[in-house]
Amino acid sequence: MESGTPVIGGGLCWARDTEGRARVTPRGEQGQALRADAARNRARVLRVAREQLAAGDDSLQLNAIARLAGVGVGTVYRHFPNRHALWEALSTERFQGLVDEAQAAAADEDALAGLHRLLRFALLEASDDSGFAAVLESASDADTQTAELKAELDGAVGRLLDRARRDGAIRRDVEADDVRRLLCGIEHAIRSGDSDPKRAEVYLGVLIEGLRPPR
């Protein structure tokens, strides 16, 4: 038998070491090795996807990414069952940055100023990355981490809105989810035009004015 050839028996995975001695590997350790291999494949897929985006290709065709990453198509689909799931994974860092910004805004002494700063930051992030915008506005999430980030975001925005309402700075019938959807609407408006930054400021001003209590 060649070195390293596994022999299954007795609830353990047996293998030979480089000197021909029998080595016992508990099935738990074998599972860890498989998980490590899966993690490397996932990281390889994400690296290739980021390279595609950096090259200006945002199609994220899973079959093409599998070929470029040197892994099987089935491997890609096990990690990312669809294109949206891949976008979620690629957007995690950007989403965390938005959550951090929302939490900082919620702690701002001036709730309205914090809200304005957060809306501007979120709009710039969504306008800069159409995939992130799609993840932000999606009603369903492929990964639990995305759902958790959305819950953190809505929680921070909710606290911020509560303070702004108590100060009489915004209307009382707007919730965190409403703000997120309205912001995504502005992002669509910008993207459907010429992406002029000046229009972004105009639209943001309209949103901020609309959040004020009715006169």
UniProtKB/TrEMBL annotation:
<dbReference type="InterPro" id="IPR049445">
    <property type="entry name" value="TetR_SbtR-like_C"/>
</dbReference>
<dbReference type="Pfam" id="PF00440">
    <property type="entry name" value="TetR_N"/>
</dbReference>
<keyword id="KW-0804">Transcription</keyword>
<feature type="domain" description="HTH tetR-type">
    <location>
        <begin position="39"/>
        <end position="98"/>
    </location>
</feature>
<dbReference type="Pfam" id="PF21597">
    <property type="entry name" value="TetR_C_43"/>
</dbReference>
<keyword id="KW-0805">Transcription regulation</keyword>
<feature type="DNA-binding region" description="H-T-H motif">
    <location>
        <begin position="61"/>
        <end position="80"/>
    </location>
</feature>
<protein>
    <submittedName>
        <fullName>Helix-turn-helix transcriptional regulator</fullName>
    </submittedName>
</protein>
<dbReference type="InterPro" id="IPR009057">
    <property type="entry name" value="Homeodomain-like_sf"/>
</dbReference>
<dbReference type="InterPro" id="IPR050109">
    <property type="entry name" value="HTH-type_TetR-like_transc_reg"/>
</dbReference>
<dbReference type="InterPro" id="IPR036271">
    <property type="entry name" value="Tet_transcr_reg_TetR-rel_C_sf"/>
</dbReference>
<keyword id="KW-0238">DNA-binding</keyword>
<dbReference type="InterPro" id="IPR001647">
    <property type="entry name" value="HTH_TetR"/>
</dbReference>
